[in-house]
Amino acid sequence: MAGSSNSMNSLEQKTETQQSAPVQLGSSHISQNRFEPYFDAMTPRNITALVGKSAYLSCRVRNLGNKTVSWIRHRDIHILTVGSYTYTSDQRFQANHHTENDEWTLQIKWAQKRDAGIYECQISTQPVRSYFVNLNLVEISEEESYKPPQDESYKCNCSCPPDDSVPTAQVLGGPDLYVDMGSTINLTCSVKYSPEPPAYIFWYHGGEVISYDSSRGGVSVITEKGDVTTSFLLIQHADISDSGKYSCNPSNANVASVRVHVLNGERPAAMQTGSARLSKSSLNIVALLVISYIYQMCTYNQCPSLGAVR
């Protein structure tokens, strides 16, 4: 009987062990699935960039953990980057990781037409997980810019760009800007239709990059990034040497230019016409002030006599 009792206890212990094991495995399996890496499906899959500028392809990876992210060019299955390291002799390719939004960006500097095609963002899971981005490249000249429809009855009250639009830069107030010597030159460059703000905006004067810490002094730039990125170039105490062509060169858009004329007292024909109109307006304002003065005097029974008016 004792032997039979021991045998029954052994069997019960074995049964309890067999029943508890699957519960632990199941719990572990669910926890593992819950934290697997995945792609943010809201990341753009079609990117348009300009030839000769930098192109930026991005993918967002959540719950990456100890896995790595790689970028692969699909036309030749060439591994370009793994993590933050570049695995190609073409130094135009570079990977950037933005930890604040889990974004992995492949930068292609000085993009060429041959760079167009499909790129794969890959997570090193088993099996691997992939997110495909298509890069389109277009050429645009310095003079080209987006023009609204010619039909005046058409009113665009939305910020959505046309389907075939590309990032476009424009310097406001062009093509010519006149300023007085000693005043402040204020140039405004806006970049529209860009899927993301430009990485940088360079200003040029006469083909040379403007140095903000040069011995001249008084030069500053303010850039506001958003759906429309705006860069303000301020040059204080304008001098004749500040005249010339100024160009706004964003990283992802065409070059936009304006010609600045610093005047030393002279007035071109266009500005003289404006001055004449201003003088006429000033006379009208003076006449209104005189009439208002006479009306107020008459209100208090102190109307000036006609002889006085004459």
UniProtKB/TrEMBL annotation:
It holds the Pfam family Ig_3. This is Ig-like domain-containing protein. GO terms for biological process: synapse organization. InterPro entries: Ig-like_dom, Ig-like_dom_sf, Ig-like_fold, Ig_I-set, Ig_sub, Ig_sub2, Ig_V-set, Zig-8. Residues 1-27 are annotated as: Disordered. One of its GO terms (cellular component) is neuron projection membrane. It comes from the Eukaryota. Residues 37-134, 167-259 form the Ig-like domain. PANTHER family: DEFECTIVE PROBOSCIS EXTENSION RESPONSE 10, ISOFORM A-RELATED, DEFECTIVE PROBOSCIS EXTENSION RESPONSE DPR -RELATED. SUPFAM superfamilies: Immunoglobulin. CDD domains: IgV.
